[in-house]
Design brief:
By secondary structure, this protein is mainly alpha-helical. It has 14 helices and no strands.
């Protein structure tokens, strides 16, 4: 009996297709093999992110996504890291479409998580941060920031949204915007005295007062901003010399509060002995001393 050659060819082809399909499935499973220590991998991915190795960060975040259960908290963390990396890898030209898709996935799958709050803020930030030469749609951005703050009034992400929103009003330098910002900041400072952004709020309050020519209030707000500033001893770039100089200058030239001016000039001289503005600080102290001596002699 002659062998049925067409049938044999069909069998061979069928076997090859089966082997190919099996190989594909094996490859997929290999790519999605379980990650034993997902938190370590996530930490490693963030390290790559901070080092600017964005492609490596994306690879590690994706590995965690492929290697943990669908509804695990580690998956949400990896999604957030992946979204941030796609957005910020070439700021402001990042892959906003992919980032937005991932942020929205977080909000949908884990609406009550910390990462949902930060993802909601990130979606607004992507609209606010635009390429050079382009102006954001401030009415839209302000409305969205307000919505984030209203949704998360006691969350750090909500407070950050509020600070960014107020900053958009003070960027215009109009009296009306400054008055509005000052009123909103009054409420925020009263309601959130221990906010992580309380120092920033006082700084914006000082800017509003500057725009409104409220000199004493501006000085008081600058002092509060410095008082509430968080000190990070691990940060080698932590520098208060500019704050000391600004407070002293406003106190001397705008308010006429020589005691406060001398105090902060001297703090700068003591804490920053190599500061390039120290010559000016010494001259300012001499100038104020001479002016007060002259006034005493005249009286």
């Amino acid at each position: 009996m002659k062998p049925n050659r067409p049938f044999q060819i069909f069998i061979v082809i069928l076997i090859l297709i089966t082997v190919a399909i099996a190989a594909v499935f094996l490859l997929i499973e290999k790519k999605k093999e379980k990650v034993d220590k997902p938190l370590d991998e996530i930490s490693s991915a963030w390290l790559q992110f901070r080092m600017g190795e964005y492609n490596q960060a994306i690879k590690r975040f994706q590995m965690v996504l492929d290697g943990v259960p669908e509804n695990s908290p580690e998956r949400i963390q990896a999604l957030y890291g992946l979204a941030c990396t796609h957005w910020l890898k070439q700021l402001p030209y990042g892959d906003k479409a992919t980032a937005a898709e991932l942020f929205n996935e977080i909000i949908t799958k884990s609406p009550d998580s910390e990462y949902a709050a930060w993802s909601t803020l990130a979606l607004v930030r992507m609209q606010h941060i635009v390429i050079s030469g382009t102006t954001p749609d401030y009415p839209v951005v302000r409305k969205l920031y307000q919505q984030v703050y209203d949704k998360y009034p006691k969350h750090t992400a909500g407070h950050e949204a509020f600070i960014y929103m107020i900053g958009t009003y003070l960027a215009a330098f109009t009296k009306e915007d400054a008055e509005y910002a000052k009123g909103k900041l009054d409420e925020f400072i009263k309601d959130n005295p221990n906010s992580p952004f309380i120092s920033s709020a006082w700084g914006l309050y000082a800017r509003a007062c500057q725009n409104l020519n409220l000199k004493q209030e501006r000085l008081d707000a600058m002092l509060k901003e410095l008082e509430k500033r968080e000190i990070d001893p691990r940060n080698p770039f932590m520098d208060n010399s500019s704050a000391y100089w600004a407070i002293a200058s406003v106190a001397e030239f705008e308010v006429g509060d020589f005691d406060t001016a001398r105090k902060y000039y001297r703090m700068m001289l003591k804490e920053y002995p190599r500061e390039r503005r120290n010559f000016g600080a010494n001259k300012a102290i001499e100038r104020m001393d001479a002016m007060e001596e002259k006034l005493r002699e005249e009286n």
